[in-house]
């Protein structure tokens, strides 16, 4: 059920409307102990108008899907009001590949764990270089024909790989993908804002984006330029955060601190948290269908939900100040129609 306090966007050129803020249990669904507070987060989301929930067979090697399924069963929410996506990984569960045999069994296993008859969106969770793309697309279409999924999408595919998907579908009369799931935040911009733009324009592809807080780097916790001890030292995502930290801050600590301080000053001025500013900036991009956010507490989730109102405060002037603080706006693609030998190259 839609809420007046939530914004909704169509997922690509489909008729499926998703909340611009969505919940993913990649980090919260790896242990049975998480089941209780994961349910509290989902309940809060639904009461706030969030209708899109994302998971994957790879998260916890099935545990995340199992917890999400138990949560949905416990809540008893109307299935028609909930949009659920899961992803099939070419390297999960010790069985490699997105072959016809593997995908057919994998979707049945996922639905069993989720306790659902169907998922709304089924993703290819990374490109499989060892299985012909035509074979995987064909079985994905069969899954849709059998009402085990309604739509399909790609995740972390290159523009060339996505274009190949459309070419294959057009040739064989198959249903094409409607969405790409990729990373997008203030530090990871090139893919969404430059590389995928022709795909968005040509095919009307939607985008469900992950890591809108850059693994927590944009939360305000690391404004001093230091990676503090905490759960990232021990959990499965510690290495990922440290890698991102080194990419963003390593070798340019003083510049990174200035960026963080600039973002904090803007957040303080418009009366929001730094995390809310970062999330609001992500959903301000019209090519973003929904931003997937996880949470480790209700307080953290409530803070994230507040980004809906914050996005309305991001005037062109505020957005320009954010760009000044970031200093990393991707250069636009070259418009060769307007190019002359004396034109400045950008």
Automatic annotation (TrEMBL):
Give the protein family: Belongs to the shaker potassium channel beta subunit family.
Say if the entry is tagged with keyword Oxidoreductase: yes
Q: Which Gene3D superfamilies match?
A: NADP-dependent oxidoreductase domain (3.20.20.100)
Q: Which protein are we looking at?
A: NADP-dependent oxidoreductase domain-containing protein
Matching InterPro entries, A to Z?
Answer: K_chnl_volt-dep_bsu_KCNAB-rel (IPR005399), NAD(P)_OxRdtase_dom_sf (IPR036812), NADP_OxRdtase_dom (IPR023210)
Q: Which residues form the NADP-dependent oxidoreductase domain?
A: 23-324
Q: Which organism is it from?
A: Blepharisma stoltei
The protein's matches in PANTHER family, at most eight in alphabetical order, are given as: HYPERKINETIC, ISOFORM M
Q: Give the Gene Ontology MF terms in alphabetical order.
A: oxidoreductase activity
Entry keywords, A to Z: NADP, Oxidoreductase
Q: Which domain of life is it from?
A: Eukaryota
């Amino acid at each position: 059920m839609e809420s007046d306090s939530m914004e909704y966007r169509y997922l690509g050129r489909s008729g499926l409307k998703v909340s611009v803020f969505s919940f993913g249990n990649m980090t919260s669904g790896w242990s049975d102990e998480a089941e209780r507070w994961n349910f509290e987060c989902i309940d809060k989301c639904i009461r706030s108008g969030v209708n899109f929930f994302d998971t994957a067979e790879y998260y916890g090697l099935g545990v995340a899907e199992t917890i999400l399924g138990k949560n949905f069963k416990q809540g008893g929410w109307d299935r028609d009001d909930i949009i659920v996506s899961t992803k099939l990984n070419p390297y999960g569960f010790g069985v490699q590949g997105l072959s016809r045999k593997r995908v057919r069994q994998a979707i049945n296993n996922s639905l069993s764990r989720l306790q659902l008859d169907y998922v709304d969106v089924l993703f290819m969770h990374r490109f499989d270089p060892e299985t012909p793309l035509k074979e995987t697309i064909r079985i994905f279409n069969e899954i849709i024909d059998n009402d085990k999924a309604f739509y399909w999408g790609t995740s972390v595919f290159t523009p060339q790989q996505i274009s190949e998907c459309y070419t294959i579908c057009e040739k064989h009369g198959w249903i094409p993908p409607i969405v790409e799931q990729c990373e997008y935040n203030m530090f990871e911009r090139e893919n969404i804002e430059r590389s995928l733009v022709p795909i968005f324009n040509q095919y009307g592809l939607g985008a469900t984006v992950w890591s809108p807080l850059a693994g927590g780097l944009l939360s305000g916790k690391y404004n001093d330029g230091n990676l503090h001890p905490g759960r990232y030292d021990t959990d499965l995502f510690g290495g990922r955060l440290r890698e991102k930290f080194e990419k963003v801050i390593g070798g340019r600590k003083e510049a990174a601190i200035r960026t963080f301080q600039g973002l904090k000053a803007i957040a303080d001025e418009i009366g929001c948290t730094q995390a809310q500013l970062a999330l609001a900036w992500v959903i301000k991009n019209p090519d973003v269908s929904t931003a997937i956010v996880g949470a480790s507490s209700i307080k953290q989730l409530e803070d994230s939900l507040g980004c809906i109102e914050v996005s309305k405060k991001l005037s062109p002037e505020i957005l320009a100040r954010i760009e000044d603080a970031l200093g990393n706006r991707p250069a636009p693609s070259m418009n060769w129609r307007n190019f002359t030998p004396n034109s400045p190259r950008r």
